[in-house]
Amino acid sequence: xxxxxxxxxxxxxxxxxxxxxxxxxxxxxxxxxxxxxxxxxxxxxxxxxxxxxxxxxxxxxxxxxxxxxxxxxxxxxxxxxxxxxxxxxxxxxxxxxxxxxxxxxxxxxxxxxxxxxxxxxxxxxxxxxxxxxxxxxxxxxxxxxxxxxxxxxxxxxxxxxxxxxxxxx
Length: 169
Description:
Shape: elongated
Structural class: mainly alpha
Low-confidence stretches: none
Mean pLDDT: 96
Number of strands: 2
CATH topology: Four Helix Bundle (Hemerythrin (Met), subunit A)
Distance between the termini: 48 Å
CATH class: Mainly Alpha
Number of domains: 1
Helix content: over 70%
Order of helices and strands: HEHHEHH
């Protein structure tokens, strides 16, 4: 059971790394006249993601969820693939990537990397990870709760992001 908390801590460390990168990119965007959209829902997204990282191991511990290799190993693979997709998005967008919705006037939409095929590949990674991370150790209640909350939040976020990007594309 020690491996699962370690995995959660590694994902939490990855999230902190994202925030460091996002803060640097936010400063760059603001220096170029970047405008933030949807700041009101950002705290809810942060809360949902923090909740995922607390609830999944709590469910495993409190409800004595077993590790089922037939489920756990494939879900771990999905988690790792989601991380790879997320960082591919970060690398592709470069300074334009952020955890917030920030639009720099005059910057074109990125249409390379995973954005060649999917409009919002980072959100594909978020959805996949939100389902898979809890299921690595059969925390299915957390997977359902996060997925439901995330669906609401992403619906709002994608609408705001699409409206913010409309002048660009």
